[in-house]
Write a structure and sequence with these properties.
mainly alpha; MetI-like fold
């Protein structure tokens, strides 16, 4: 008789039984591979200009054509994956680093601490996410690092909400009450008994937040508040392409398609993770 599967094995099996989520994961792995191996994959220097190859259509020499400065679009899209994925991951790590501890504190402290933190989060959520990110990025200055900080701070309230709700649910379980009754200090109860049980919803939120962060980074770069030229970024490439949509549509098609596929893949994987990590959703 086979031993029963662990919760982790059940979650992995449930995830693998969702073909759409697996396709999203495969696409993400491809994007990460392209970003890591960009110096090997890119056929040209992404910032090298060529005045003899300005706005050339896709061809055997330049598979995705060239831009208004004669730079190879394929190389710029390849290197642009680095900026977008880095912004997505780092921004979410910043948001989780702020929001998860705040959610734990609010869910376990209760009373006025919970009330104060919840009102701060409500005030931040009252402002649209992208508007808040643009305001923070404009205040900090146009730079990819500042853009990641702005996106992370703007995303933190969502993590705080998720972490607080999961903490309140976990804190009502008998094993947490037993840990408290045995005299465990609050920090040990939080880190040892509550935190491991709020990881699944936080992980799902993180996966979906990466997709939103990639769109936010592209929007900030489009507005000139993210990655600065001549360094490649999908958003800045779209900004440059808007002047040549009728003459050279490929300048907007390929970076736009990269954003679409990357964001879609993270959303597909996030939906699959949400179903796989929820015991009620496993079949």
């Amino acid at each position: 008789m086979k031993p029963p599967l662990s919760p982790r094995q059940l979650a992995i099996r449930a995830f693998l039984h969702r073909p759409v989520a697996v396709v999203g994961l495969v696409i993400i792995v491809l994007f990460v591979t392209v970003a890591v191996l960009a110096p090997v994959i890119a056929p040209y220097d992404p910032i090298a200009t060529s005045w003899t190859a300005i706005r050339k259509a896709p061809s055997a020499a330049h598979w995705m054509g060239t831009d208004e400065n004669g730079r190879d679009v394929l190389s710029r899209v390849t290197y642009g994956a680095r900026a977008s994925l880095l912004a997505g991951v780092v921004s979410v790590l910043i948001a989780a680093g702020i929001g998860v501890p705040a959610g734990l504190l609010a869910g376990l402290s209760g009373r006025w601490v919970d009330a104060v933190l919840s009102r701060i989060v409500d005030a931040m959520l009252a402002c649209p996410f992208l508007i808040l990110a643009i305001a923070l990025a404009a205040f900090l200055g146009p730079d990819l690092t500042n853009a990641m900080i702005a996106i992370g701070v703007s995303t933190a309230p969502r993590f705080m909400r998720v972490a607080r709700a999961a903490t309140l649910d976990a804190a009502s379980n008998d094993y947490v009450e037993a840990a408290r009754a045995l005299g465990n200090p609050p920090w040990r109860v939080a880190l040892r008994h509550v935190l491991p049980n709020i990881v699944p919803p936080v992980l799902v939120q993180g996966t979906l937040a990466i997709a939103a962060a990639i769109i936010a980074e592209a929007s900030l770069s489009f507005l000139g508040l993210g990655q600065q030229p001549p360094e490649p970024s999908w958003g800045s490439m779209l900004n440059s392409a808007q002047r040549f949509l009728s003459q050279a549509p490929w300048l907007a098609v390929f970076p736009g398609l990269a954003i679409f596929l990357c964001v879609l893949s993270f959303n597909l994987m996030g939906d699959g993770l949400r179903d796989a990590l929820d015991p009620r959703g496993r079949r």
